[in-house]
Structures are given as structure tokens and as C-alpha cells.
Amino acid sequence: MNRYLLDTNAALIALTEPDILPRNMLKAVLAARNVLSVVSYWEVVLKSMKGNLKLDNPGTWWRDALDQLSATPLLLRPEHIAELYNLPSIHKDPFDRVLIAQATAEGLEMLTTDTEIRRYASPRFRVLP
User: Which of 18, 61, 63, 66 is the most exposed place for a label (fewest CB within 10 A)?
Assistant: First the structure.
């Protein structure tokens, strides 16, 4: 049974406008085998601080997101950082790259709306088609 790591954008859409997700992605989210990385929380708080993301309370976003998505939290660990070394230099977004490394190290399938992340797909890094 696959478990799915939601990238930050997919998590935000799933929480606010789930009906605009592609059907296969919405089905995966509703299967409640979701994983949400603390890296996404970090990204959400930074975007909120910069005014690029409007949230009622960025301080409670993490717990609310975990509850609403029926997600398991994923902390950042040294083996995730080590996996960064193996990633090709497709793009430079540090949050995306860490999420890809985490998914790879944990054997999770990525749920993403980002076409750049899809370019990393390989036998070790799976992206929901």
C-alpha cells in the first residue's frame, strides 16, 4: 500500500480547494495514507511571514493540516539531507529538493502539482502520475 508525501503546494490546495486537484491526486489524498513533512510547515511559515501566503494562524497550520489531511508527520533527519547529494540539479528550490530527498529516502510516492518536481522521477523517486 502506497503512502504519499504531499508537497507543500499540493497540501495547501488539498486543504483549501481540493476539487481543483487532478482526480487521481484527490483520490490518493482521500485514501488517507498521507505524509506531511515538517519542511512544508517551515515553507508555509516563511511564505506567511513574507506576505506571500495568507493564513488565519500560521502557528496552528501544522496541527490543523495533519488533522484535516489525516497525515502522518515526517521530521527532517540526517539521511534525508544525505540523499540531497544524489539529486540531479534540475532546479534550485531548496524546499522541493528536501521533499524529494525525503520521499526518496523513505520510499514514499510524491503528490505534486509541480512539473519541475516530476522531472526528478526515477526508479527510486516515484511521483503519482
Answer: 63
